[in-house]
Amino acid sequence: MAGKRDKKGSGSGIVIRREEIVEGGHHGGAWKVAYADFVTAMMAFFLLMWLLNATTEEQRRGLADYFSPANLMSHASSGTGEPFGGHTPFDKGEMVSDRGAVQVVQGAQPVVERTKDGNDRVITDYHPSYTGDGVGQKPAAEDLAAEDLAAEDGAARMAGSAAQRQAADQPASPAGQPDGAADRRYQTPAEQEAERERLEKAAFEQAAQQIRDAVRSDPALAVLAKQLAIDMTPEGLRIQIMDEVKLPMFPTGSSAPNERARLLLQKIVPVLLKLSQPISIAGHTDAAPFPGPDRTNWELSAERANATRRLLVDDGLPESRIRSVTGLADREPLLPNDPLAAANRRIAILVLRQMPQAAAPEAPAATAGTQPAGP
């Protein structure tokens, strides 16, 4: 028994070593992925906010069309061509090209074939010349009409955006200028001249109507309305004050206007002050010879024209507006067929055009084109 104990006691021992591992190394990078996703989302959000602020409605519509799902059955699927329908974030709705905005057009109906049993439908590959009946045909009329409408809509949007940009770039018209005066720098010389003639004609027509209304509204001058003729000539607006047999504007052989002529000229001056064009005054007489060897109808017509000038200036017309004062005697009768008629004795006040028109051929009768102030 003792021998056995000694044998067990002398046996080799078993050593167990236990090492404690400290968790201080790498823990993984899952949080970095989440953080990167967050930063990416924030960047996309701020980019979206910037695009909403920096683009126009037209550009945003083009952006939406660009990223919309393509229609496989349409000739004009979105996502082709330039992005934003030809726009950039820095222009004001202007189209870079003239092809119109990107449009998504409803395509033609897909080709449908029936199986032999008549129940199932098979959608075959689409081809413009194939409509399902096995015979090559042109595209359907409604499809072509839809494409034409899309092209017209794109052109209209292009023209509208260009007009808006031009209107935004133009400065506001200064006070006192007619509408559209600021657009003249975008017009050609021919267009500017046509616009100037149109405005001048409108001003002359308004002045003529104001003179007629002023004479008709005055009881003391209403009877003289038929002795006032206003018409448009190639040189400008002509106002003629004529004599009548029993209602002369100047005493016979005299250059001093009577009271009726003075009142009539006083009604004309306020209207002339609204215009800025120069004025020419001409005196006319009939063909009756002037009595006496010392004076002729030349002196009489010139003196009456000059007397009219004095009255206009005394009533407030600036002297600088007077371009010329002329006596024409009986050389330009109003009634050529009746050289002794009282209407040939007259005063013609001509408001000259800034740009005279080409002279039109005169009618045989000098009265053609005149319009009395009376009814």
Automatic annotation (TrEMBL):
The protein's UniProt keywords, in alphabetical order, are: Cell membrane, Membrane, Transmembrane, Transmembrane helix
Residue ranges annotated for the OmpA-like domain, each copy included? 237-355
Where it mainly occurs, coarsely classed, is membrane
Query: Which residue stretches does the UniProt record annotate as biased composition, category Basic and acidic residues?
Result: 114-124
> Where are the residues of the annotated region Disordered?
114-138, 155-193
Subcellular location field: Cell membrane
Q: Identify one Gene Ontology CC term for this UniProt entry.
A: plasma membrane
Q: Does the keyword Transmembrane helix apply?
A: yes
Q: Which PROSITE patterns match?
A: OMPA_2
Q: Which domain of life is it from?
A: Bacteria
Asked if the record carries the keyword Membrane, the reply is yes
Q: Which residues cross the membrane?
A: 33-52
What membrane topology does this protein have? Single-pass membrane protein
Family the entry assigns: Belongs to the MotB family.
**Which protein, by its recorded name, is this?**
OmpA-like domain-containing protein
Give the source species: Rhodopila globiformis
